[in-house]
Amino acid sequence: MNKIDLSRVDLNLLTAFEALYQEQSVSRAAERLYLGQSAMSHTLGRLRKLFDDVLLERQGQQMRPTRKADELYLAIHDVLSVIRDRVLDQSAFTADIWEGAVRIGLNDYCELVYARALFERIQAQAPHAQLSFVTVNRSNAADLLKAGKLDMALGHWSEAMDELEVQDLYLEKHVCLFDNRVLQKSLPLSLQDYLDTPHALVTPEGELSGNVDNILARQGLSRKVALGCSRFISLLNLLKGNRLLSVVPETMSYIDDSEQPLHHCIPPVAVGDFAISLAWRKSDSAHPVLSWLKQLMHDIVLQERHRVIGQSEV
């Protein structure tokens, strides 16, 4: 059997075949597709040549499909249904039957605080979907989004990112986090106690200084950084039972629900707030899956933060 050259196949031909088969009349098929009868007759001729079959035979006042037309109709109707329902009708997205994959970029802090809630709520709404959390930071998130390797990213983006949309969700404060059963300091910490206590910080790149050191340097001050680690979950474990303190996002200071949680207080030096934001490709903004995911993540993050810190958003 000779294969048909797909470059010869016009989608309009398949649409015309479907109408001819269903109407079994050239004139009715032409009216249905807003074509002249002569144009539809010409199209029928092209279809007959394409499939090497008469396809429709006149019997009395009607045109009856041939056996080959019956076989072709089943396949062509299925193909056109897929194109209409899954390609052209993007509004047909329904989360509870969707079987696609969601790729979400999370910085370390957001993964620690929000990953569980994101998984549970997304799975509840889209039980057949797959979910992948990808570790991101300010240096790689934009590139991963632009390359289509992420659908959405949640974190702190220090500057505007070309080709991307960014939606701020809330402003995060900084607090000092420490085990005061070890430090035995009066709260809130004095500046001197803050500077005298060894510091720990999260440093994915291995550096032992950060924004806090820059702030202190502008005031002629410095701190002693005794420890750097790559993950916030490690930092929480290291602070317990050790003479260390760390400046961390406020929300993270509330997630320790153990019997002996860590202590926190406002830093004695002003450390600026920062925005936690969603980011996605501008070109994907109107896609129904992204619209659903964006709204869902917005709601999950704010609700989970409210649950964790136990206070209302202003």
From TrEMBL:
Residues 9-66 form the HTH lysR-type domain. Pfam families: HTH_1, LysR_substrate. One of its GO terms (molecular function) is DNA binding. The keyword DNA-binding applies. The keyword Transcription regulation applies. Keywords: DNA-binding, Transcription, Transcription regulation. InterPro entries: LysR-type_TF, LysR_HTH_N, LysR_subst-bd, WH-like_DNA-bd_sf, WH_DNA-bd_sf. Belongs to the LysR transcriptional regulatory family. PANTHER family: HTH-TYPE TRANSCRIPTIONAL REGULATOR LEUO-RELATED, TRANSCRIPTIONAL REGULATORY PROTEIN. This is HTH lysR-type domain-containing protein.
